[in-house]
Design goal:
The structure holds three protein chains of three kinds.
Chain A: H1 20-24, H2 27-45, H3 52-58, H4 60-77, H5 85-101, H6 106-130, H7 135-154, H8 164-170, H9 180-198, H10 200-210, H11 212-217, H12 222-248, H13 259-269, H14 281-300, H15 305-331
Chain B: E1 24-35, E2 38-49, E3 53-57, H1 64-71, E4 79-84, E5 87-89, H2 94-99, E6 102-105, H3 117-122, H4 136-149, H5 165-178, E7 183-187, H6 195-210, E8 214-218, H7 222-228, E9 231-236, E10 239-245, H8 251-259, E11 277-285, E12 293-298, E13 302-306, H9 313-320, E14 328-333, E15 336-338, H10 343-348, E16 351-354, H11 358-362, H12 369-373, E17 382-383, E18 386-387, H13 389-402, H14 419-431, E19 437-441, H15 449-464, E20 468-472, H16 476-482, E21 485-490, E22 493-499, H17 505-513, H18 515-520
Parallel strand pairs in B: 3-8, 3-9, 6-7, 7-8, 13-20, 13-21, 16-19, 19-20
Antiparallel strand pairs in B: 1-2, 1-4, 4-5, 9-10, 11-12, 11-14, 14-15, 17-18, 21-22
Helix pairs in contact in B: 4-5
Chain C: H1 2-23, H2 30-55, H3 63-80, H4 86-110, H5 115-134, E1 139-140, H6 146-150, E2 155-156, E3 159-160, H7 161-179, H8 181-191, H9 193-198, H10 203-229, E4 231-232, H11 240-250, H12 262-281, H13 288-306, H14 317-331
Helix pairs in contact in C: 1-12, 2-7, 2-10, 2-11, 2-12, 3-4, 3-5, 3-10, 4-5, 4-10, 7-8, 11-12, 11-13, 12-13
Classes of the chains: A mainly alpha, B alpha/beta, C mainly alpha.
């Protein structure tokens, strides 16, 4: 008698039993708690914190970084990384500056920004997927190369000739006091989150990060997808450069210095694993808010930037260490 | 349905009772080990004697690998006692196990590819000069001595990455001997070896026996067990269900004990009704892996592809599946030529390939069962581009039930299922693509006999439904029992073709090892 | 293959030096070359320390921040107690750096948090700490005692003390990595962590060793840097961790762990050192430095990977024969 044609002797439930603990222990829930804590602490320490206009203005300081973090999140879920994102911003800003000097209007500057960003991303993607080189080393190389080119071209000069339309986009609002850059970030987060969590493309990204070999054997175009994620990361860096240049109104060779590490911090704090295969966009968005509001709150109290970084470093380590320490503490009793 | 506990289950009062044959080297009693949600071992006992080979048999998931990990110090048992040469021991790390004289040789060799043979043998316990520096010369000389004892002429300074599988096993055995291991555990050591290499291995096992070492031999291959082992112990569902002398046992008894029910015939009867020709392959060739492959496949046919390990069968099928590019040749499906430059294209053309290496190529262990099953056919479950959880679940239930997958729920991580169930899920993933041609690469390797039978029945069903199946297998009985026609490959070429009924086991093996040619010369 | 790679790199460095010498003969004079060596001595040491970390599949991005913080601490101690013997200051720098490395080790080995994340965090913390302990102030040479500043200027047999210290570290590294069990265990842990565990090697202990040593070397270089340039503030050696990693990569150390050699690491650092010193001599603006570094890293990674390329399995007898004859010819 064939066992298989009879109904299976095993009863398999659709899903695991849902408990409150499952919900509470989710990374996103912990981030929400952290966000509430941040708001409460900062509101107590400064009367200016809970002002809506102030908060919305605070988003200026992190919206561009956050756009980059979205691209970084996808890459890291796919078990890659791009440390050249900040250097791409510098290079894009340089080319925008040169184009502006040559008379380009804002629309053309946007095209320049996106095209340059995508091209840089394509270079990264080609080296990593085409030649099968480790992403971390390649992007350290391209980081030096891209920023180096910007440095060579600019020396210690700055480009400041930008059309007003660009400045009003980078510094402007889109009604009800919401900055254009922040609104753009939110829309991008929605779109990218949707694609990642609800479409086959997104599922394939998770598969590539979880087991690239098995993904390949499962008919997933691993090289193609990884390449496209590098291009997307470059594109988002280009878009971030567009907004940043508009906001600052000038291009210097050290623009966006250190932003690659800030982006990685946002992504890791958001619950994306360095090893790939897991993470969520809502988590990254929450992490962006936690980091952004903490920075804003600190700056309201005139804490210097470098000291704020100490806090952010502590926060990053604490949030990652806490679950491990808690688990050990809880199982120590057994 | 048969009850879980078979009529043959034997409960033991004390494992040392049966050790009357020789000097006891290692004994376990009352060993239990639990993981969250799973009781891996319950009250298990084991007794190993000097100079004897004890076979450890059991289905996948029966607890064999957990037992080995406890013996090698990777896990600590929740309860129970381990005695080595009369002394009670508690291993807190692999180092303790080595120190107690227990060594293991694993199925997939665990070596340092970039380092030399000598370093691999002595890693962790290298000879040291008086001043604390590594004594390279002593290391080389001692390695030479050990390798000589194994009749190997390998050079101790060779980097391990240049060695073949059998040679790597040799190094692992040398490593075990370098610890002067009194207990040598061999976990499926013949899985990737050729017939001649297996003979070499058995000679070494005999020598180890003569040296008075105790050997724990884990294998699914009954012919090997009955040839090399003196005693046997059987595990099922984490419990010890029997032990005895090989000389006093027959294969059928062991199988029944393992499974808990008797298996009357190994292979299902085939009602063969072959349809039209579905696949034609002509002169398919690759620069280094295979050459001139020509064959065809009909609806409802099971084509067996036999050969020694490394004959190029998997490589040929992977090319058919679009994973690699051929240098020349033509593939025709339903009479029209197709260019398969990627697996996605192959799937679209109706070809699916279930890979040989489950862990790295077939299964995404961090994903759940549902996510694995739907992975190769995601576009089927979308509604205007968005994944529909309901559709995914439907397909998962359908295939999971049909394949009798044992899991707590469909979201359970694949890594938590047994090997046999993981394999079923992987097969399910490919069935979800509705293939017309299904290539199975060693589908029953390393899985228990119950799941094996299920897979065979399943293949039969699928062939009956009009699929064409290519079965790559290194197990002669399986190939001969399941196939309608057999192709034998050797060193990248097809060297023989047989039809069902017209093949003798001898002829097939001769073709695979090239003996027929040698006889002709 | 490994030998080939290092010889190739040595050849490239030599060619580079000769090439620059042709344009500017002053470059290849002994004082000039010794100057390059002196200038690169800190990079030599940091690269060797980072190699140890990379071997274990880890990474230490906090080395420059450690250097800067320890340098500041050394300077502050010297400022507060100018009479303290310099050897004591040096010992303090090494110990302090080691403690900073121990923080990394505890989080990485003790808690299992990925190294890139931990060292990103400590990078920010240590940099910020400089600002905090000095209250934003800078230390300049007039805040430092003459003895403090004298160390790099001491010469022995015509070579700066910096070169001798680097040589001592290099010899120590070579002995450790090639002649001690703990050193070889690093290759095991990075090459095959599972196998290393089976051999009884404790990953946590190996990680503890490399991160503490990395910290100690960073600390030592912190004092030497501050002493050499006579300045200490929060931004010294900013971004230098990437230069160190670049030197490792160029020197053939694999980011995936398990591969790397002392001569290779030294050559990688030397390569970057030559470039940095050659550019002003041949009238290339120092602004080119970063771009050239980047291009060299990419070239090094591409070249290193090519040598490990596999052409697919050799199954057909004619393919195996061809491969055997090729490697036979290469060996003879």
């Amino acid at each position: 008698m064939s066992e298989v044609s009879a109904p299976s002797r095993y009863h398999v439930a659709d899903g695991p039993p849902r408990t409150v603990a499952d919900f509470v222990l989710r990374w996103e829930t912990i981030l929400v708690a952290l966000l509430i804590l941040t708001v409460v602490v900062n509101a107590t320490l400064s009367p200016y914190f809970l002002d809506v206009d102030n908060l919305l203005d605070a988003t200026f300081n992190f919206s561009e970084k956050a756009m980059i973090a979205l691209g970084m999140a996808l890459l890291m879920i796919a078990r890659d990384i791009d440390l050249s994102v900040a250097a791409i911003v510098a290079l894009v800003s340089l080319l925008m500056g040169l184009s502006a000097v040559a008379g380009a209007n804002t629309g053309a500057l946007l095209v320049v920004a996106l095209a340059t960003g995508a091209a840089c991303g394509a270079i990264n993607g080609a080296l990593v997927t085409g030649l099968a080189l480790p992403a971390i080393v390649v992007t350290i190389g391209t980081m030096s190369l891209f920023r180096g080119v910007a440095q060579v071209a600019l020396g210690d000069q700055a480009l400041t000739q930008y059309p007003n339309a660009l400045l009003s986009i980078g510094q402007g609002y889109v009604g009800a006091g919401v900055p254009v850059s922040f609104a753009t970030f939110l829309i991008l987060a929605l779109g990218i989150g949707f694609v990642l969590h609800k479409t086959p493309f997104g599922r394939r990204i998770f598969a590539i990060g979880a087991n690239p070999e098995a993904a390949r054997f499962s008919g997933i175009g691993v090289k193609r997808i990884r390449f496209s994620l590098f291009v997307l990361s470059g594109l988002l860096s280009g878009l971030a450069a567009f907004f940043l240049t508009g906001r600052i109104g000038s291009t210097r060779p050290n623009i966006a210095q250190g932003w690659e590490l800030e982006a990685v911090t946002m992504v890791v704090l958001g619950g994306v694993s360095i090893a790939g295969g897991s993470g969520t966009i809502p988590g990254v968005v929450l992490a962006v808010f936690v980091l952004g509001l903490t920075t804003f709150g600190m700056s309201l109290m005139n804490v210097p930037g470098i000291v704020i970084n100490v806090l952010l470093g502590l926060l990053l380590i604490a949030v990652l260490a806490a679950p491990i320490v808690a688990r050990r503490w809880l199982t120590a009793g057994r | 349905m048969f009850p879980n506990r078979s009529l043959f289950a034997v409960t033991l009062a004390s494992p040392t009772k049966l050790a009357a044959g020789g000097t006891l080297v290692l004994s376990l009693s009352g060993v239990s080990k639990a993981f969250p949600g799973v009781l891996a071992l319950h009250d298990v006992g084991l007794a190993l004697n000097e100079g004897e080979v004890t076979a450890l048999v059991g289905e996948n998931g029966a607890g064999k690998s957990t037992l080995v990990k406890i013996l090698t110090g990777i896990y600590t048992p929740d309860s129970g006692a381990v005695h080595v040469q009369g002394r009670s021991v508690a291993f807190r790390s692999p180092r303790d196990a080595w120190a107690a004289g227990i060594a293991a040789i694993h199925q997939e060799t665990v070596m340092f590819d970039e380092l030399s043979l000598a370093e691999n043998i002595f890693m962790g316990h290298a000879p040291v000069t008086r001043m604390g520096r590594l004594d390279w010369q002593a290391m080389r000389e001692k390695s030479r001595t050990l390798l000589d004892a194994l009749e190997s002429d390998l050079d101790p300074t060779t980097p391990v990455k240049q060695l073949g599988v059998a040679q790597k096993h040799m190094v692992e055995i040398a490593r075990a001997l370098s610890h002067d291991a009194r207990v040598v555990i061999m976990d499926e050591p013949t899985a990737a070896l050729s017939a001649r290499e297996i003979e070499d291995l058995f000679r070494i096992v005999e020598r180890l026996k003569k040296d008075g070492r105790a050997i724990l031999f884990i294998s699914h291959k009954f012919d090997e067990i009955f040839r090399i082992a003196d005693r046997w112990t059987c595990l099922r569902d984490g419990e010890q269900v029997g032990e005895g002398l090989i000389a006093e046992t027959v294969e059928r008894e062991l199988v029944s004990l393992m499974v808990g029910r008797s298996i009357d015939k190994v292979f299902p009867e085939r009602q063969i009704a072959l349809g039209k020709t579905m696949l034609e392959v002509e002169d398919l060739s690759h620069p280094t892996e295979f050459d001139g492959l020509t064959f065809s496949l009909r609806q409802g046919e099971i084509l067996g592809l036999y050969g020694l390990v490394g004959a190029g069968r998997s490589e040929a099928m992977q090319c058919l599946f679009g994973l690699t590019r051929p240098s020349r040749g033509q593939i025709r499906i339903d009479g029209s030529k197709v260019e398969l430059t990627s697996p996605a294209q192959a799937v679209a053309a109706g070809i699916s390939y279930v890979p040989e290496d489950r862990q790295t190529q077939g299964a995404v262990l961090p994903f759940g069962v549902r996510e694995n099953i739907t992975l190769a056919s995601l576009s089927r479950y979308t509604v205007s581009g968005v994944l529909s959880p309901a559709r995914e679940l439907n397909e998962t239930r359908r295939l999971g039930d049909r394949l009798a997958v044992k899991a707590a729920n469909w979201e359970q991580l694949l890594g938590e299922l047994s090997g046999g169930n993981q394999q079923k899920v992987v097969i399910g993933k490919w069935l979800a693509t509705r293939p017309r041609i299904l290539i199975l690469d060693e589908p029953t390797k390393g899985i228990d006999i119950g799941s094996k039978a299920a897979v065979h029945d399943f293949m039969n069903e699928l062939a009956g439904e009009g699929l064409a199946i290519i079965l790559i297998s290194s197990e002669l009985p399986e190939v001969m029992g399941m196939s309608d026609s057999i192709l034998v490959m050797r060193e990248g070429r097809i060297v023989a073709r047989f039809q069902r009924g017209a093949a003798s086991a001898e002829a097939v093996v001769r073709a695979a090892s090239g003996l027929a040619q040698e006889a002709a010369e | 293959m490994k030998l080939h790679r290092e010889t190739l790199l040595a050849g490239i460095v030599l060619a580079l030096v000769i090439g620059v010498g042709l344009r500017a003969p002053a470059f290849v004079t002994l004082p000039s070359l010794l100057g390059v060596l002196t200038d690169t001595s800190l990079l030599f040491m940091l690269t060797l320390a980072q190699m140890g970390v990379l071997l274990t599949r880890g990474i230490d991005l906090s080395v420059a921040a450690n250097l800067a913080l320890t340098g500041m601490v050394a300077g502050l101690v010297n400022h507060a107690a100018p009479g303290l013997p310099i050897l004591a200051i040096i010992a303090l720098a090494i110990v302090f750096g080691a403690v900073l490395g121990l923080v990394n080790a505890t989080l990485i080995a003790g808690l299992g948090i990925p190294p890139i994340v931990v060292t990103l965090g400590t990078l920010a913390i240590y940099r910020g700490a400089i600002f905090l302990i000095a209250r934003g102030a800078w230390l300049t040479s007039k805040d430092m005692s003459p003895a403090f500043l004298a160390t790099p200027k001491v010469q022995f047999l015509g070579l700066s003390s910096l070169v001798w210290i680097a040589a001592a570290v290099a010899i120590g590294a070579w002995i450790f990595l090639n002649h001690t069990a703990a050193g070889r265990a690093l290759y095991a842990v990075g090459g095959n962590p599972v196998a290393a565990r089976y051999c009884g090697i404790d990953l946590a202990r190996q990680q503890l060793i490399v991160y503490v040593i990395s910290g100690a070397v960073s600390g030592l270089c912190g004092y030497l840097w501050v002493s050499r340039y006579g300045i200490a503030y929060s931004d010294i050696a900013l971004g230098y961790e990437l230069t160190v990693i670049a030197a490792c990569v160029i020197g053939g150390v694999s980011i995936a762990g398990g591969v790397g050699s002392v001569p290779g690491a030294l050559l990688g650092a030397l390569f970057l050192g030559v470039i940095v010193n050659a550019l002003p001599v041949i009238n290339v603006s120092p602004f080119w430095q970063m771009a050239i570094s980047g291009a060299v890293i990419l070239a090094a990674v591409i070249v290193n990977s090519r040598s490990e390329r596999s052409v697919g399995k050799l199954i057909l007898p004619e393919a195996r024969r061809k491969a055997a004859s090729v490697s036979g010819a290469a060996a003879s």
